[in-house]
Write a structure and sequence with these properties.
single chain, 321 residues, alpha/beta, pyruvate-formate lyase- activating enzyme, OB fold (Dihydrolipoamide Acetyltransferase, E2P), 2 domains, five-stranded mixed barrel, 10 helices, 32% helix, globular
């Protein structure tokens, strides 16, 4: 299958992506995907597990399950069993693969965060304590116009439950600014939600009209200069919040999966924590790539942590046989 390691580079022996479904049934008013990719259709659990096993046999240690709304997987084709959604059943099955260290998934939808999925973070050790949950807006009025089918209150309830299961879970999101009809009050509702949640990071998008989507024909298209201003304000605040959250890792020990050379400095290695923080350190690629390694965080950068190799002697020579 072409997508087994498609898009992965030198790090493909450590991490890989597995597509579990295609299409989307949500029809958010700003999105063209349902019109271009069709209705949701999924692969069988058995087929997905087989592909994951083949990847692990090739040295992969972390697998990310992919879907347009990944936690809508198998709703009609597989359904609930023993109180578990089809997606949680899939997580259980993949979790049983020997030598697989970590499981991630993207992109989910808040509507798919039932209690069974939230509880999975507490009972499946391989499921990374990290959740990217697109909120798009903090305004109930805009969420309704976007056809997001949840409220601000419901989103915050999901966050509360996730943090109750794991207080250290990493949380990121997607936010759109300048959606048609967005008032200053709506924008401030989004700002206050970002403050209340305290996201580790967020992708902040400037709304742009997509031909063929309902939002492109809505009244109240926002002037470009207002969109630019709101984008800059929100992005600045997200960065400030994220910086404070990253600073909490200073002088703490973290465990990372070493993925390979750093993207910014090939003389160093990098990996990610379970909560999806990038950590850069000086190490030995031959020895450490693909390994779970504990590091002490000595400093932080812009959404990057830096580990102290001296404490852990990660530069010691390889043992001789």
């Amino acid at each position: 299958k072409e997508h087994l390691l498609k898009g992965n580079t030198e790090k493909s022996s450590v991490t890989a992506f597995v597509s579990i479904m295609q299409g989307c049934n949500q029809y958010c008013t700003f999105c063209i995907v349902p019109y271009t990719r069709g209705k949701e259709r999924c692969r069988s659990i058995e087929e997905i597990v087989l592909e994951c096993q083949q990847l692990v046999d090739r040295g992969v240690r972390e697998i990310t399950l992919l879907g347009q709304i990944v936690n809508s997987y198998g709703k009609r084709e597989i359904g609930m069993k023993d109180g578990k959604s089809a997606f949680v059943q899939l997580l259980d099955a993949v979790h049983q693969i020997e030598d697989l260290e970590r499981i991630r998934f993207t992109s989910p939808h808040p509507k798919g965060y039932g209690d069974d999925l939230i509880e999975a973070y507490g009972r499946l050790p391989k499921l990374c304590p990290s959740a990217h949950i697109p909120v798009q807006s903090g305004s109930d009025r805009l969420l309704k116009r976007m056809h997001r089918v949840y409220t601000r209150e419901r989103f915050l309830e999901i966050i509360h439950k996730l943090r109750k299961v794991n207080p250290h879970i990493g949380l990121t999101t997607d936010i759109i600014v300048g959606f048609p009809g967005e008032t200053e009050e709506d924008f401030q509702a989004t700002m206050s939600l970002a403050e209340e949640v305290g996201f580790d990071n967020a992708f902040v998008f400037k709304y742009s009209q997509r031909t063929g989507t309902p939002a492109s024909e809505m009244d109240g298209q926002i002037p470009k200069e207002i969109i630019e201003s709101r984008h800059a304000i929100l992005l600045k605040r997200i960065t400030e919040i994220g910086r404070k959250r990253y600073e909490q890792f200073l002088n703490r020990e973290v465990e990372i999966l070493v993925e390979g050379p750093s993207r910014r400095n090939s003389e160093r290695l990098e990996g990610r924590t379970g909560c999806n923080k990038i950590v850069v350190f000086e190490g030995n690629k031959q020895r450490h790539q693909g390994q779970l390694l504990k590091l002490n965080i000595e400093r932080t950068g812009s959404f990057t942590l830096y580990g102290d190799p001296a404490i852990l002697n990660v530069n010691d020579p390889l043992p001789t046989c």
